[in-house]
Each structure stands twice: as structure tokens, then as C-alpha cells.
Design a protein that fits this description.
CATH topology of the largest domain: Sortase, Chain: A
Oligomer: single chain
Number of strands: 8
Number of domains: 2
Distance between the termini: 31 Å
Number of helices: 2
CATH superfamily of the largest domain: Sortase
Shape: globular
Structural class: alpha+beta
Radius of gyration: 17 Å
CATH class of the largest domain: Mainly Beta
């Protein structure tokens, strides 16, 4: 029992330090960005990343699928990671969340002046499709809200398969926007990966 407790403390400390290191690297990326890019979301997960057995591990920068939003006539590559390089290529998958199609909250972030320029036109009831190596997953928008930039509710775990899209707000704000525009959708077609 004592060895198990000690092992848990060591693993917890390692995970904490890994998270701090990742957050520090992201902070350096933000501060050294030459184009003033805004990173989404600007929050650090407060939980251990859930892993699903038999899912291929993606590297930062990998294309892991596509996101289609018919309302705004948009098909966008989903890139692993939310750094400036990834967000220039498509919508970024927040690595602290599960991949789309898994039962939990999958968070995707994009720039308000590029891939999510028209995200404000999406309405409750609209369908959003994600295609990846594990299938095609159709989500229905059930919630749209505006939150502060550091609002952790964007990344909280969920019991159902939820897709969360996040971008800076207001859309036409000059400089670092103080808020986030968040669209949440629940899985309606496709078998969620357990």
C-alpha cells in the first residue's frame, strides 16, 4: 500500500511537471510570435489527458481529420496542436482533450480572422461533421456562448461525445481579444469511441 502511494506521488509529480513544461513552451511561443497570433484556448487543462486504447498517437502538426460546417460552407483540416504553425494550416485540436468521436469533450480552436471568421453565423441546430481515421461523426450545435479568455469551462470533461469550437471574440477586435466565442455540439450520428 505504501509503495502504491509513493508510485502515485511520483507519477502525479511527473504529470504536473510535464504540464508546466508544456504550458511554459506555449507561453514562449505566444510571446515570441512575430505576427501577434492569438492562441486558443489560453488555458491549461486541470486534469490528466484521457487516452483511449488502440487509438493512434498523433504528433503535433499531424493532420488528424477534417471539420465540415455547411452553414458557413467551410471544410477545414484538423491539425494536432494549437500553436501558431498548426493554426496557420487549419483548425487546431487542443491536445488536452480527446480526439473528435471519443466520448468526452473534444476541443478545436481556430483563428477568428481565418478558419473561424464566419463562426458567428453558426446557429443552434446546425450540423457539423468530423471525419477522421475512426469514422464520420456528425454533431448538432446545442449551445453557443461568449466567455472570458481564461474560462476553464471550455475544456471540462463531459460524459457524452461533445465537440467544442473556440475562437477569439469580438470577431473584429484589434489586438488580443478579451473573450472567446464558443460553439458546443453533441454527437448525433456516428458510434462514439468508448
Amino acid at each position: 500500500m505504501k509503495k502504491t502511494h509513493s508510485a502515485l506521488l511520483v507519477v502525479s509529480a511527473f504529470l504536473f511537471l510535464s504540464g508546466v513544461g508544456t504550458a511554459g513552451f506555449a507561453g514562449i511561443e505566444i510571446l515570441t510570435s512575430s505576427n501577434g497570433a492569438e492562441y486558443l484556448p489560453r488555458i491549461t487543462p486541470n486534469r490528466e489527458v484521457q487516452t483511449v486504447p488502440d487509438l493512434k498517437k498523433s504528433k503535433i502538426g499531424d493532420v488528424i481529420g477534417s471539420l465540415t460546417i455547411p452553414r458557413i460552407n467551410s471544410k477545414i483540416a484538423i491539425i494536432e496542436g494549437t500553436g501558431s504553425k498548426e493554426l496557420k494550416r487549419g483548425v487546431g485540436h487542443y491536445v488536452g482533450s480527446v480526439i473528435p468521436g471519443v466520448s468526452d469533450n473534444s476541443v478545436l480552436a481556430g483563428h477568428r480572422d481565418s478558419v473561424f471568421r464566419r463562426l458567428g453565423e453558426v446557429k443552434i441546430g446546425d450540423l457539423i461533421t468530423v471525419r477522421n481515421d475512426y469514422g464520420t461523426f456528425v454533431y448538432e450545435v446545442h449551445k453557443i456562448r461568449i466567455v472570458q479568455a481564461n474560462d476553464r469551462t471550455v475544456i471540462v470533461p463531459t460524459k457524452d461525445a461533445v465537440l467544442t469550437l473556440s475562437t477569439c471574440y469580438p470577431f473584429r477586435f484589434i489586438g488580443n481579444a478579451p473573450k472567446r466565442y464558443v460553439v458546443q455540439a453533441g454527437l448525433v450520428i456516428g458510434e462514439p469511441i468508448a
